[in-house]
Amino acid sequence: MRKKWLVIGLSLLMALLVTGITFAAGKQEAAKAGHSAIKLVWWSMWNETEPQAKVYKEAVNDYMSQHPKVQVSIQWNGREIRKTLPPALDANTQIDIWEQADEYATKTWKDYALKLNSYYEKTYPTTNSRTYRESIIPALYELHKSFTEDGSLYIAPEQPFIVSSMYNKDLLKKVGVSIKTVGATWEEFLAVLEKLKSGGITPMTFDDAYSDLPLAIHLDRLYGGYEPVEKLAKDKTGKLWDDPRVMQTAKDYEYLASEGYFSKQVATNKWPAGQQEVATNQVAIYPQNGSWLPNELKSTAGLDFPWGQFAYPIPKNGKDGGTGGTFGSQAFMINKKCKNPDTAFDLIVFLTIGKWGKKFSNDTLSIPMDLSQEWPKQLADDKEIFKSLTNNYPWSGGLGASSESFPIVKKAFIELASGKINAEKFVAEIKAGVTK
Amino acid sequence: MKLKNSVIVVFLGPAVVFYLLIFLYPSIRTLIMSFFYVKTVTASMARWSFVGLKNYRIIFQSKMFIHSLSNIFYIWFYGGLGVFFAALLYAVILTSGVKGKSFFRDILYLPNVITAVALATMWIHFAFNNQYGLFKIIFQTLGLKQLAEFQWTAPEHELFSMTVAYSFGCVGYYVLIFMAGIEKIPTDFYEAATIEGAGIFKKFTSITLPLLIGVMKTAVVLWSIAAVTFFLWSMMFSPYDPEMGTITPMVYMYNTTFGRNVIVTNPELVNAGLGAAVGVVMTSIIVIVFLAVDRLLPDQEEIKY
Question: Which of A18, A154, A404, B226 could cross-link A113 (Cys pair, CB 3.0–4.6 Å)?
């Protein structure tokens, strides 16, 4: 009997202790929260170890020291945020700010987000009396408006990017050749490849992850836009693949493969093996990659790597004049349930425009958001290409419109570029894949 | 001693409640979800739109889904043959009184304690690499030029290479299972067979294999579940977009539920309801495999020591 009371007594004591500790901790937390009148929670798409996160951490500390009443807590989700964010928002977790690629964010998550148009028309401490809209790259502003039918903006951009042909300037110099940054024709491009090859340099390579991009831009150029390529991707009859422009694309790549212009590793390159071929001076050109490439390769290639970029060449009978290309940005969103949206937007502007925007661009070798800032020297050519673009092609240039045909097309293209199949077989393989 | 009903309730209650909450509720929710268009996996039911059997029609008309099924069949069949053959061989050798049994067993099991992410990275970038990979060096050293030039990660060989890499890591796990089964077989059987003049092969086919049927059944079910839920290795081989050689039903489900690079321009392609339908189909496949294995392989209970 005694024992029983002892057990009950001890249990009660434990329960009291646990309750007491929880209560005290809760009080402490409440006291902290009381000190900071505004608490913002930010779920980031960066991993804590990435250079982007390092800059943002410093910037947020700076913001909090300038605004003692604001407390910002960051959760570094990495790219898995695509998976983790919606459940958390559905469960009403406090998340005031989050990030994602611009188009994906607008088209899939806008129901959770605050409309930001009015914020674009205001000035902020770091915008030097300009409105936010006047401070950022106009092309991005227009692009982001185009993602919604009524021009509503649900995102604020960060880390803009452009897709272009990336190359090693020194290797081209070595064989005494150069290429126009904008407007190179297919013949001029072939002449560069030939010079490189005869100089003993492997002209081009790519990885599986980016293998769709050269094919897509080639088709986009020939069709004069990405919409017909989307139709091509969605075609289940196979008839659209009989278009002569498809055959011309296939023939152009068949020629590149037959002339030995691609690295021998091109069929087997698992990302980032192909990128490393460029970083280690084994190959001169990566036909299509994002402007993040110099940052991704800086630990191998170094900061002084002679990066150059050119707009993808215009194939014979190309219709877009080389003025179409893929560009975009990563982006911030603000929760429509956010209790302090003004502070949240103010923080976003603080991070992207002004000294922290500059540091972000410098440390991550990325295109600056702020119009008044210099582009990193590694992306100097990309600036010229960016200026020349009048049409935006989505990522994968329309080929990504169907998740059914996409893997079939990618596989056939890798086989074509590595010389395993010819142009006719390329078309036949895709037709068989999409219709069977 | 007869337990009071209240004691049974107290002890079983929490387990039952947790089972219902953690397993049964999501299963039923997934089943219902598979008949709806659902934008995000956790969207409240008020935001679901009923589509009837449309999600099922989509997946059975999807060439990519059917292709993903053929991929896991390949992994299940060829990977299974390789793993079971190697595991049985090692299990028999290690239970035959060989020296250093624990050491070899641990070595074989080692890949199971290393995360699959690290293993896959090692295979892709250090074993299969065509410039400096392990196989390239080994075959080159042996003067086997054609094998040295084999393109392990080329699109047409990707499925084979992924199956090899995955199966390699699985062998140790099944060795342990088979060893446990073999060690349960009374040694008298082998002694009697030896006296009767049976050789190693005869003893294996007439004693070991028949008496391992029960263990084999469990192993086949485990292997089948692993094949049906094959995901991580595929994601490691194709981290950005699905590829013909690496797409599996779970990857297809992941893409439709959460979206990947390819699903950007058309947000309608992200449909958690479609993902749920894939989940239901795959669960049904596992149940069918389980029943088939149960029917096709004889019952262990018929064999008495």
Answer: A154
Q: When comparing pLDDT for A326 and B295, which is higher? A: A326
Inter-chain CB proximity B238 and A208 less than 8 Å: yes
Q: Establish if A103 touches chain B: CB-CB under 8 angstroms.
A: yes
| Structural domain containing residue B198 | 62-302
CATH number of the domain within which B174 lies: 1.10.3720.10
Q: Examine residue B156 and state whether it is found in any structural domain, yes or no.
A: yes
- Answer for the pair A368, A355: CB distance below 8 angstroms, yes or no: no
Mutate to test the interface with B, among A92, A102, A103, A108 (most CBs of B within 10 A): A108
**Could you tell me if A344 and A338 are in contact, meaning their C-beta atoms sit under 8 angstroms apart?**
yes
- A87 touches B at CB < 8 Å: yes
Domains and CATH numbers, chain A: 37-161+328-388 (3.40.190.10), 162-326+395-435 (3.40.190.10)
DSSP conformation letters of chain B: -PPPHHHHHHHHHHHHHHHIIIIIHHHHHHHHHTTEE-SSTT--GGG-EE-TTHHHHHHHH-HHHHHHHHHHHHIIIIIHHHHHHHHHHHHHHHTTT-TTHHHHHHHHHGGGGS-HHHHHHHIIIIIS-TTT-HHHHHHHHTT-HHHHT--TTSTTTHHHHHHHHHHHHHHHHHHHHHHHHHHHS-HHHHHHHHHTT--HHHHIIIIIHHHTHHHHHHHHHHHHHHHHT--HHHHHHSSSS--TTT--HHHHHHHHHH--TTSSS-GGG--HHHHHHHHHHHHHHHHHHHHHHHHHSPPGGG---
For A125-137, write each residue's pLDDT tens digit: 999 999 999 999 9
Residue B34, in any domain of the structure: no
Q: In this complex, do B258 and A83 lie within 8 Å of one another by their Cβ atoms?
A: yes
Interface contact flag, A208 B43, Cβ < 8 Å: no
ipTM of this predicted structure: 0.89
What is the per-residue pLDDT across A260-316, written as a single tens digit (0 to 9) for each?
999 999 999 999 999 999 999 999 999 999 999 999 999 999 999 999 999 999 999
Amino acid type, A87 = P
Instruction: For residue B266, tell me if it sits in a domain.
Output: yes
**How many CB atoms within 10 Å of residue A321?**
13
| pLDDT tens track for A199-237 | 999 999 999 999 999 999 999 999 999 999 999 999 999
The conformation of residue A165, written as its DSSP 8-state character, comes to E
Task: Give the predicted TM-score (pTM) of the model.
Answer: 0.89
